[in-house]
Design goal:
By secondary structure, the protein is of the alpha+beta class. It is 36% helix and 22% strand. Helix 13 runs parallel beside helix 15, helix 13 (309-319) crosses helix 16 (374-383) and helix 13 (309-319) runs antiparallel to helix 19 (462-478).
């Protein structure tokens, strides 16, 4: 009987794993593929485009603390604040927190909030309607009372943060000089705009990293804050206030369009006061009208009329065509030049140079100018600053108009001698009189406080300046400027009245001016008053601007403790027991 051999189990087992081996390789391929993908992705993230993850990580770990700096103060020459930053509260909201805390459920609280903000409740609530937003302003820079009310309402997601607000203690009195800032504290008008970088400073910053437990693990960067500078002006707030009060009163009394006044220190060139009416309140600009923003003392240029007649005399004296004691025949009271007529109100016949200024004779001044020649006239006008900037470096300053052409008719030369055919600002005119008062030296004007007395440039001989100063004193004592007299002080000055130019000629509106110097014995102040378009019967400089000059100068000299130099004119009173003033 044959025996059947048993199969080799080991051989069977070796033959069966043929399919399992394929699965193994497939699985191995998958594992290596996944691993390779992960390595490639990691390499891409780490080497090629790591910024996004770094950004996401920094959002969770980096923190920044800012050190705020208050805007620098603006002070007058005596340290009185003209602009200062004060801390205030701003109301803001986190819309995500508002929705998480169900902050919109109580509409009554939002109604109360809208009422104190003086806005519509629906507009207010719409600001926080989007729950994906994390920050929105509800009201900037509110009063302390409103801030306390917001705290008491306790609306979820509505918070307060401290900001600074610009405050102007002098209000409308110094508004045109100082200017103002926008709601973010950036200067947009006046000196606030010009010196914005100086006044702003640079906030400090600390950047550090925290771990999940809130512990500081790395100090990234610390930037120290750069404190702003304060700006000290040449303005004397006392003089600014009294000048503004007088100009505002004159504009209202004469129903004028506007008025301006400038007070200069003749030795240093400092602007002690610069005022305009109408003005505005920089602390409340809700109803601000654009025309009130203009600093008319430097932006508005007018034909200065008879206030520049002393320049014609100066040009004649410097050129040697006249002498101080000369007599000029102004008969018959008019002069015909090229078919045009220059005239005086009456025939005054022969007049000395001083009398020509006292009586403001157009004919006499025209004859001096024609003898002097246009080149000498233009050189003198340019030397005192007409047609150029004053050096005060303020926003919107006008250069005025001083034409420099080759051909001039005799009539044009004549009219130039009494302030027509050119234009100048109130500040430029004040500079001219400051030069006369300063012995013929021209000092660049400044709105910042100046330490010491600058050397200046001699543009008029000292003897000519002294001679013309004496003539101008006679104008106030005996001539058209009598209403500019100041009791107890010697005053020099000149009136001016010019018709305003319109298309095709001159209209019926006038600009009245008075420019003067005080005290004559030791000149300290040059003051110019301009009143634009006065209404009524009074429209001459002697009637409108001269009395304003007298009030401003009298008050200013007393405020500055300048001793009287005309005691013979001062009526000093002694008080006695039981006595009465009379």
């Amino acid at each position: 009987m044959a025996v059947t051999p048993k199969p080799n189990r080991r051989a069977v087992k070796k033959a069966q794993p043929h399919l399992s081996k394929g699965r193994f390789y497939f699985a191995l391929l998958v594992v290596f593929g996944v691993f390779g993908t992960l390595v490639a992705r990691a390499a891409y993230i780490q080497l090629i485009e790591p910024e996004r993850l770094i950004y996401e990580g920094d959002l969770r770990s980096l923190r920044t603390n800012a050190t705020t700096v208050q805007r620098g103060s603006i002070l007058d020459r005596n340290g009185r604040e003209l602009a200062v930053s004060v801390p205030v509260q701003t109301v803001w909201a986190d819309p995500k927190r508002v929705h998480e805390g169900d902050g919109l459920a109580n509409r009554e609280r939002w109604l109360a909030l809208a009422e104190v903000f003086r806005t519509d409740v629906n507009d207010l609530m719409s600001k926080v309607a989007d729950p994906t937003r994390r920050f929105v302003y509800l009201e900037r820079k509110v009063t302390p009372g409103v801030a306390e009310f917001v705290r008491q309402l306790d609306i979820p997601g509505v918070y307060l943060k401290t900001e600074s607000r610009r405050f102007y203690p002098a209000g409308e009195i110094a508004a045109h000089v100082v200017g103002f800032t926008d709601i973010d504290g950036l200067g947009i008008e006046g000196l606030e705009a010009i010196y914005n970088q100086v006044l702003t400073g640079v906030p400090g910053e600390r950047v550090y990293r925290k771990d999940a437990a809130g512990r500081v693990v790395e100090e990234i960067r610390v930037t120290e804050a750069q404190q702003p500078q304060q700006l000290t002006l040449s303005i004397d707030q006392r003089l600014q206030s009294l000048a503004y009060a007088e100009v505002k009163k004159a504009v209202r009394y004469h129903q004028a369009t506007s008025g301006s006044a400038v007070i200069l220190d003749v030795k240093t060139g400092e602007v002690l006061a610069m005022v305009n009416s109408p003005s505005y309140n920089p602390n409340n600009r809700h109803d601000l009208q654009p025309h009130k923003l203009r600093n008319r003392a430097i932006t508005d240029a007018y034909e200065p009329g008879s206030t520049v007649k002393p320049l014609a005399v100066i040009a004649g004296l410097e050129a040697g065509v006249i002498k101080p004691n000369d007599v000029i025949n102004t008969s018959p009271g008019w002069l015909r030049l090229g078919g045009r007529r220059v005239s005086d109100p009456i025939n005054r016949g022969e007049q000395t140079i001083t009398q020509i200024l006292e009586n403001s004779s157009n004919v006499g001044t025209a004859k001096i100018a024609l003898a002097t020649g246009i080149n000498n006239m233009l050189d003198t006008y340019a030397a005192v600053g007409f047609g150029n900037d004053t050096g005060v470096a303020m926003l919107g300053e006008s250069f005025g108009i001083l034409q420099n052409r080759q051909r001039w008719s005799d009539f044009e030369i004549a009219t130039l001698s009494y302030g027509y055919g050119m234009s100048a600002t109130t500040l430029q005119l004040a500079q001219m009189y400051a030069i006369i008062a300063n012995g013929g030296k021209r000092v660049p004007l400044t709105i910042q406080r100046r330490e010491g007395t600058p050397e200046g440039e001699q543009v008029i001989s000292a003897s000519t300046a002294e001679t013309v100063l004496g003539m101008l004193e006679s104008v106030v004592a005996n001539g058209s400027g009598k209403r500019a007299q100041v009791r107890g002080y010697r005053v020099a000055g000149k009136t001016g009245t010019s018709r305003k130019a319109i298309a095709g000629g001159y209209g019926e509106e006038y600009v009245t001016l008075f420019a003067g110097i005080a005290p004559v014995s030791n000149p300290r102040l040059a003051v110019v008053v301009t009143v634009n378009e006065p209404s009524g019967d009074e429209y001459y400089g002697s009637e409108v601007s001269a009395p304003v000059f007298s009030e401003i100068v009298g008050d200013a000299l007393r405020v500055m403790n300048i001793p009287p130099d005309n005691l013979a004119d001062a009526q000093l009173k002694a008080a006695g027991f039981g006595g009465a003033d009379d």
